[in-house]
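Section 5: illustrative case.
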């Protein structure tokens, strides 16, 4: 238990200011590894949102609930909602994430490790924003209200000539999920003077990786500039408590050798 509480790390300001949103052309994915039992995770969510607010069109957040602090049994009767996903658990295990809050920025190392604490996210975001993009992405979504089914098409274009094995992952995230969250930062707007924030609003929550945790190949070997690709996928919402109006599709292309993300895009399920 001592280890567990030490593993839920305090987020310390300052986080990062002065981001140049016009530099570079790459968009940035902040993966916030979190859990409803982590008292310091609301502070990490604030950090991610502060970064996004500085550069909204180019920063995308995905909150991944996985590991001990996402347990449905360890924190009492108020904390039984299951945020866990197959993809989130797979990534959490692959990257050996122990303790929260932790996160990744485009799954990029930057000399400090791929997985870092929130107060290192800002520097990584700046680095990635200043990097030219090798890939452009676009997402087209259609939701059939009668069938309760999403159809999404992710199209892309390689801007530069590159070499490697490139894969596409397509996810669904959801906003405005009201479920309990442990918290020890009572200065966050709306936070109660209690460690049990029972009406906490969870944002950017990973619901599913439609084409699996590691996605599908889109190009391999020497890829010439101008190479196009397109993948169409379906996701049935039946049997889930997901609210389509609160959901987004998040798609990203990554390099197979080191898993670093080349580009990411997001689009609402229902505009």
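Designed sequence:
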């Amino acid at each position: 238990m001592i280890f567990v509480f030490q593993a839920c790390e305090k987020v310390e300001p300052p986080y990062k200011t002065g981001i140049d949103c016009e530099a570079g052309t790459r968009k940035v994915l902040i993966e916030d590894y979190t859990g409803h039992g982590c008292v310091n995770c609301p502070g990490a969510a604030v950090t991610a949102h502060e970064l996004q607010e500085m550069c909204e069109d180019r920063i995308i957040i995905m909150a991944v609930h996985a590991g001990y602090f996402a347990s449905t049994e360890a924190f009492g009767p108020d904390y039984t909602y299951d945020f866990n996903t197959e993809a989130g658990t797979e990534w959490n295990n692959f990257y050996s994430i122990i303790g929260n809050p932790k996160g990744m920025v485009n799954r990029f190392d930057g000399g400090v490790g791929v997985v870092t604490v929130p107060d290192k996210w800002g520097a990584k975001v700046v680095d990635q924003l200043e990097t030219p993009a090798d890939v452009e992405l676009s997402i087209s979504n259609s939701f059939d209200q009668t069938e309760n089914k999403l159809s999404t098409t992710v199209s892309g274009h390689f801007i530069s000539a590159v070499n490697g094995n490139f894969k596409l992952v397509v996810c669904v995230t959801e906003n405005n999920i009201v479920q309990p969250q442990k918290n020890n930062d009572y200065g966050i707007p709306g936070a109660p003077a209690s460690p049990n924030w029972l009406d906490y609003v969870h944002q950017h929550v990973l619901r599913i990786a439609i084409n699996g945790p590691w996605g599908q190949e889109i190009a391999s070997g020497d890829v010439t500039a101008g190479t196009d690709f397109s993948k169409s996928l379906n996701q049935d919402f039946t049997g889930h408590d997901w609210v389509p109006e609160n959901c987004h599709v998040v798609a990203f292309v990554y390099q197979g050798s080191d898993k670093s993300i080349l580009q990411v895009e997001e689009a609402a399920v229902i505009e």
